[in-house]
Amino acid sequence: MENQGYKILVADDEPDLLDILSYNLIKEGYNVTTAKDGDEAIEKAKQVKPHLIILDMMMPKKTGVQVCQVLRTQDVFKETLIMFLTALNDESTQIRGLETGADDYVSKPVSPKVLLSRVAALLRRIHKEDTKSIKAGPITIDPERFVVQNGEKEIILAKKEFELLYLLALKPGRVFLRNEILNAIWGNDVIVGDRTIDVHIRKIRQKLEMDCITTVKGVGYKFEV
Hints:
Number of strands: 12
CATH architecture of the largest domain: 3-Layer(aba) Sandwich
Order of helices and strands: EHEHEHEHEHEEEEHEHHEE
CATH class of the largest domain: Alpha Beta
CATH topology of the largest domain: Rossmann fold
Radius of gyration: 20 Å
Mean pLDDT: 85
Largest sheet: 5 strands, parallel
CATH superfamily of the largest domain: Response regulator
Number of helices: 8
Number of domains: 2
Shape: elongated
């Protein structure tokens, strides 16, 4: 099971459905937040900044379409993935939802397996967008060739070492929590020791011959050059 540590907001006014969706998404390793109406969905979206928002079309206070419209007017949510999950499956409603700015439209009822597949397909867009070379000081990180260039020197890292460095370097200065790193790189289906990250960080520093990863004691790690 692959786990990228993505944040998902699910908004629906049916408590039982929320529970089922949350259970299956969490089981796959996603970080899940729920909302029971349109207004709460907007507030939770502002708080959490999810990678994907799953909206019911018919909710109290604001409909899914209204929520989508509100979020798409704000710069911070213009690239956020939005999926409608609704019992309304007529063609005109689907077209309206997609024209509002949704990335996908799924009709209820849907099996958890199919929904998870659609969620994974959407989130792969983010992963593909992220696979770009990163230039930071003398370091260039090339995800296509899986190599790191430090000045004129080309350095080959082990797969997990490279993935860890790339994750941190995507957001320089941001502190990544230990659990966040474990979920993103190793996933919930792999049991690793508490020292696993420390060992990989040490190897990265040794191979790059520079200390570009800072340890924030008791919290996590951040990339700085």
